[in-house]
Design brief:
The chain is of the alpha/beta class. The chain folds into 2 domains: 3-259, TIM Barrel (Alpha-Beta Barrel); 268-335, Non-ribosomal Peptide Synthetase Peptidyl Carrier Protein, Chain A (Orthogonal Bundle), CATH 1.10.1200.80. It is built from 15 helices and 11 strands. The protein has an 8-stranded parallel beta barrel with strand order 3-4-6-7-8-9-10-11, surrounded by 5 helices. It has a two-stranded antiparallel ribbon with strand order 1-2. Strand 9 (179-183), helix 9 (198-205) and strand 10 (213-216) form a beta-alpha-beta unit. The longest helix has 26 residues, at 268-293. The chain is globular and about 60 Å long. Mean pLDDT is 93; it is low at 1-11.
């Protein structure tokens, strides 16, 4: 056997079920009011290997609530795509999984990680980390309800005294999940302090684990991604807050991991083009009111660190008329045409 054939034969390709994601995939995290189709389109164009929808309420799906049903929208150019659901009732979650499957995603993901009080304190999201047996039962029922691969997004535990993720991940694997993404904080931490990837690494290196393990938390630069990859040896990374208003982070990380060199930051022309595309797609998908409002949180990051941008950024987040927003973006393009990003 020649050496090149040996390397090709034993090269690792990360797979969720039969879905191939490459040798070190980068995932877009499911984020409420962020990872919608307009934003996902940009992330896909800039290197995201697998994306998830915003999380969707099981109760909302069962009641046919308009907002929940709209979140099921996925498009062919986004694939592979996962739809994420959350809830506290096992029967409702099973039924929601069946409804979700009708939207033909590639993956169904279960949210066991959302720390927000109105979710967690009802026993959904990260709230289920206080009842691991129920978490396992719920997962098993969802796996049984569908032929699609089921994945899980969760945290280390409810608090410092209950970080049982190594055992939990193994138990979830045993009832049939095909991958797990772990945020390196407890629910009690919310998003404070540094994410601890030590236990994520222990999950990955558990000899009984054979499904992909993705790390999540604090990946905000190519350098940080490389350090975490080398130090913790997970199968890939899920990127959340660092992508908001900055979809370029996926390709920047990929390039740095492959070459050790940093890509030049996006130019003002590229940032303006992304803003316009994002706004236009939001208007088309959500209408003139929500399309404007739900794009606002991205503007700060699109122009992060730019000296003299404060006045224009204020206009972008307070203007309600779509036509005027496009005019403001043109003004920024003209005013900062020669701006050099570091």
């Amino acid at each position: 056997m020649c050496f090149s054939y040996f390397c090709e034969y034993f090269s690792e390709v990360v797979k969720i079920g039969n879905i191939e994601l490459g040798d070190y995939p980068l995932l877009l995290a499911p984020m409420e009011d962020v990872s919608d189709p307009p934003f996902r389109e940009l992330c896909k164009q800039h290197g995201a290997d697998l994306m998830y929808t915003e999380f969707i309420s099981s109760e909302g799906l069962i009641r046919d609530a308009a907002k929940s049903v709209q979140k099921l929208d996925i498009f062919e150019y986004e694939r592979p795509m996962g739809i994420q659901i959350f809830g506290y009732d096992i029967n409702s979650m099973r039924e929601a999984a069946e409804i979700t499957a009708q939207a033909k995603p590639d993956i169904i993901d279960i949210n066991y990680g959302c720390p927000v009080k109105k979710v967690a304190c009802k026993g959904a999201g990260a709230g289920i980390l206080k009842d691991i047996p129920k978490m396992v039962r719920m997962t098993e029922e969802i796996v049984k309800s569908t032929d699609l691969p089921v994945t899980v997004k969760t945290r280390l535990g409810w608090n410092e005294e209950s970080k049982y993720i190594v055992d939990v991940a193994e138990r979830l694997q045993d009832v049939g999940i095909k991958a797990i993404s772990i945020h390196g904080r407890t629910r009690k931490q919310m998003y404070k302090g540094e994410a601890d990837w030590t236990l994520i690494s222990e999950v990955k290196n558990n000899p009984r684990m054979h499904i992909p393990v993705f790390g999540n938390g604090d990946i905000d630069s190519p350098e940080k991604a490389k350090m975490m990859k080398e130090r913790y040896d997970v199968d890939g990374m899920m990127i959340g807050r660092a992508s908001i208003g900055y979809p370029w982070i996926f390709n920047e990380i990929k390039h740095y991991l492959e070459t050790g060199e940093k890509l030049a930051p996006p130019s003002i022309e590229e940032r303006i083009a992304a803003c316009k595309q994002h706004l236009q797609r939001s208007l088309e998908w959500k209408g003139p009111v929500l399309g404007v409002v739900e794009t606002r949180r991205h503007y700060t990051n699109y122009f992060k660190g730019m000296f003299g941008i404060k006045e224009y950024r204020k206009k972008l987040v307070t203007t309600d008329e779509p036509e005027r927003l496009f005019e403001i973006l043109d003004e920024i393009s003209e005013q900062f045409a020669d701006y050099q990003f570091c």
